[in-house]
Amino acid sequence: QKEVEQNSGPLSVPEGAIASLNCTYSDRVSQSFFWYRQYSGKSPELIMSIYSNGDKEDGRFTAQLNKASQYVSLLIRDSQPSDSATYLCAVIGRGSTLGRLYFGRGTQLTVWP
Amino acid sequence: GAGVSQSPRYKVAKRGQDVALRCDPISGHVSLFWYQQALGQGPEFLTYFQNEAQLDKSGLPSDRFFAERPEGSVSTLKIQRTQQEDSAVYLCASSSSGNEQFFGPGTRLTVL
Fold first, then answer.
1. A31 vs A86: CA distance, rounded Å
2. Shortest CB distance from B103 goes to which of A44, A49, A100?
3. Do A49 and B106 touch (CB under 8 A)?
């Protein structure tokens, strides 16, 4: 099992809908989680970080962490065409790998007008 | 303030050439990371510095890859005798806390 697994999609939603992106992780990584957005041809941009169980909201974005299920998700409310990008789930390593980020393959999201 | 900068943005090398990729982190960030991203994949860790100390280089794929950060600021990733499989985007990230990492624009390396 890889450290971080993402459904690579693609995911397609209409404008105004809720987009739900999911990620699972192994117990070989720590408890610090991040969501990055990557537009085509660009570098990853940090959009959310979450460290404790529950929900964290920032504008239209909500990150959800469930440590018991080793599951982290990102909800995008009122999706806009400008949200169309690849979303990368990332987790900090632990122990000897502390500091490095482990990334999933990313989920490609398309929001159509 | 200024973000992470990388140069060159694009590099084309003939197989067997040496290349050097530069990263200038966000001012004051003590942690610096290099990642490699292949097309359609998430970034893969290469190496990590805290100030000038290279704390983890276990992700470097071969001894042809070498990274340094001699004064704890700018870092250089060097690839010797480039091979076609080295073609990828090389991303640099910096962090003040060791948690949230901020990426530069990347260097796209193409080895012919």
1. 23
2. A44
3. no
